[in-house]
Design a protein that fits this description.
Blueprint (H helix, E strand, L loop, with lengths): L18 H15 L6 H7 L7 H4 L3 H26 L3 H13 L6 H11 L3 H24 L6 H18 L6 H6 L1 H9 L5 H10 L6
Helix pairs in contact: 1-4, 4-5, 4-7, 6-7, 7-8
Amino acid sequence: MEIARLTQPKQQRMPMLTREDWIDQAIEVLVESGIDAVQITDLARRMNITRGSFYWHFENRDDLLDAITKEWQQRNTGVMVDALRIATTLDEGLLALFEVWVDKKLFDPELDQSMREWSRRSESLGKKVQKEDNSRVGAIAGFLEQHGYQHPESFVRARVIYFTQLSYYALDVRELMSDRISYLNAYFQCFIGRAADPGAAEAFIALHKDKIS
């Protein structure tokens, strides 16, 4: 007589979330609702998982907040430095910065503004934000110096370039890409004292032709 084989119902496995999943979810909440909303229990509920998953990847909430800060530094400062590092001419470098700043896949302006809002309530984070701003200005100034500008002119021009872009984000300026590109030579005149190289400008415009209405 054959003995019937008993089968146990398979237990449903919890989704395997990575450290990056938690960081990405925390950043979404930070941007949507501010730093106070970034809470372990709420994040777990949002991802339909238990709090236990969190502690596989982080010691505590402060560990997560440190990870958010490092992610912001890598995304938004690192991408600017890289863009300037690989440029071979002054025009290429400035246009590479413009490319970074108009592409949210490269530079995350909402995250940048959320970090600044958070820093107004945290002295330690405020110092980190100031350090990042100094690093960004320093990278631009250093690039200008590579192409003939001397300090303090290189520093002041770098500030004008960087602070102009920050004001776009802070004031939530909205304009057509076609309008912004039409100002390209005027921006170059303000930023470096001359119009953009025609070949470099044409390549930049061609890159964004699908966004020009």
